Amino acid sequence: MTNILETLRGYQENYLYIYHATYKRYLHREVDFSQKLIRIISARGVGKTTFLLQYLRDHPSEISKKLYFSADVINVDSLFDIAYTFSREGRELLIIDEIYKYPDFEKEFKKNIRHADPAGNLFRLFHTPT
Q: How many Å from the N-terminal Cα to the C-terminal Cα in the chain?
């Protein structure tokens, strides 16, 4: 599982290199970041990915404790395994973009998220379309 995390960290570096928007999306004022699970739903092209990457960049944790990836660029058996391993390594922020493209993500997370993060320390953001 460590290999997949390293691959995902490489994707994260690429995304952060590509996205350089300096203005803040309106969502920065609207989202309650005290929630442990946030699902962002809106039309295509309104800036959800930009928002997620800005939040990743602005979050006070060290970059090594944060992970962003898009579910449409990975091929894994279980998102739960990624979240579980990430949490066990003492990481703090997990952002999964385009999660709706992962088959049965609702069932997997509803059933398993408590086991991946029993203390509720891992913060998660999800992006799904309308």
A: 32
